[in-house]
Design brief:
The protein has 15 helices and 15 strands. By secondary structure, it is α/β, with parallel strands linked by helices.
Length: 450
């Protein structure tokens, strides 16, 4: 299949940042390995993009100095650098539209001249930030694709420490300029999670599922663990110590094993819940078996994951769950709450998903899972090997770019409509290869060719 000429809108793609800015950069760079990608970005990330020397055909820098100064003032004095605030998205709306308006004016002659085959907006990822490009391209021959989209996930109900993020005004975005035309005129919409798929169900004929996150193939290395007979079960939690991550549920679930000296628990992260978690550890009588390490650099986090047995993520609101990808790649068996992005990734051959019911029920179910894993090293090792194969074959940035390529080929008329159905990683059908089960291998029938 010939290379596509893709104009990627990635205003905040930043290889030196974190979270969505970094995720969308990796996605764009993986696409650039397969196609001729021209990346459109803000001037504020130009230096980082040039330094990393990603294989883009070109980087088009959109300069909006006045808009940037106003945004920096809003971020500092109004939002107080609170990146978890719902108001952040609301304030971003005019700045995002202004960027794309300026990008259109800068590139419209080249677009109309047929220099590109397709326009793909990767960033922003929020569906509440529409794209004027869909409207501008509505009568042209160049298709517009948006996604993967994620965000707007409400906290799972029924838990004692509810996440207080306010969603009452979120749906107002539907009435903003370009909100309706973005999805009406898009040739394809890529959803990054089950709840996004449900939100855009009216567009099911052009809706596809591709996860938000990915992992570098270089992380998928051979397992180097050599546990001693009778070794403790090594548990790990990685993430902000905030209510929505619900680390307290992991502590409660592990308490029996920790008190019995059958497990140890490493908690990597920082946040307002740390004092409460330390008090909980003392009240459960497990403080000697729990280590709080605060934030560590990424290389050290990966090293810790490579030596742990189980990554615990009982988050009651988690859109992407990048730590689940990294945990699988590094041989950690995930034990998660079946809610949000992580529930779309984990399946029974590689880990465990607990339904979101209540504190007591989730803690009880996770306790049983951890007890089973502690008592059956064969089961643990089998899940570990299968998870590492699954990550290597299905969860890399290269696999994500291949899936995206199929969507783009379809919209430009170069290929059939891909089978990228909704949720629960239906993108791939991972089953145990019975002929090689003794080696614990995982065969992946990649229905979309990822």
């Amino acid at each position: 299949m010939s290379r596509l000429r893709i104009l990627v809108l990635g205003q905040n793609c930043d290889p030196e940042s974190v979270s969505i800015s970094l995720v969308t950069f990796y996605h764009a760079a993986a696409l650039a390995q397969l196609h001729d990608v021209t990346l459109v970005a803000r001037s504020s990330v130009e230096g980082a993009l040039r330094r990393v020397k990603a294989p883009f055909r070109a980087i088009e820098v959109v300069r909006t100095p006045l808009s940037d100064r106003i945004w920096n003032w809003v971020l500092r004095w109004i939002l107080k650098y609170n990146y978890d605030s719902q108001a952040l998205t609301a304030f971003r709306y005019p700045f995002s539209v202004a960027f794309e308006w300026r990008a259109w004016r800068q590139l419209r002659r080249r677009i109309r001249a047929g220099e590109f085959d397709v326009v793909l907006r990767l960033n922003p990822m929020s569906p509440a930030l529409p794209s004027p490009f869909a409207f501008f391209l509505r009568n042209g021959s160049i298709p517009f694709v948006i996604g993967p989209l994620n965000g707007g996930l409400r906290s799972a109900p029924g838990f004692s420490q509810p996440d207080k993020k306010n969603f009452r005004m979120r749906n107002l975005y539907r009435f903003m300029p370009f909100a309706r035309s973005t999805y009406r005129h898009a040739a394809a919409i890529i959803a990054a999670s089950s709840h996004m798929r449900a939100e855009f169900a009216p567009y099911r004929d052009k809706l596809f599922f591709i996860p938000e996150n990915g992992i570098a193939r270089s992380l998928c290395v051979a397992d180097s663990r050599r546990p001693e007979p009778g070794a403790k079960l090594e548990l790990i939690f990685v993430g902000g110590l905030v209510p929505r991550k619900a680390c307290y549920l992991g502590l409660r679930a592990a308490a029996t094993l920790l008190r019995s000296n059958l497990a140890c628990f490493t908690i990597i992260g920082e946040g307002p819940e740390r004092n409460n978690l330390e008090k909980l550890a003392r009240s459960l009588g497990v403080e000697k078996a729990v280590v709080f390490l605060g934030w560590l650099d990424h290389a050290e986090v990966l090293r810790r994951l490579r030596s742990a047995d189980v990554v615990v993520l009982p988050a009651i609101r988690e859109g992407g769950g990048g730590v689940v990808f990294e945990g699988l790649a590094n041989g950690c068996v995930p034990v998660i709450l079946d809610y949000g992005g992580p529930g779309d990734i984990v399946h029974p051959e590689v880990g465990y998903k607990v339904p979101p019911t209540s504190d007591d029920d989730v803690a009880s179910q996770m306790e049983k899972i951890l007890r089973d894993l502690a008592g059956d090293r064969g089961l643990l090792n089998r899940l570990r090997r299968q998870g590492m194969s699954y990550a290597r074959e299905c969860l890399t940035w290269e696999a994500k770019a291949q899936s995206t390529t199929q969507v783009l080929n379809w919209v430009v008329g170069r290929g059939p409509k891909p089978e990228l159905p909704p949720s629960r990683m239906a993108r791939v059908k991972c089953v145990i290869d019975l002929e090689n089960a003794g080696a614990g291998s995982l065969r992946s029938d990649v229905t979309a060719g990822a």
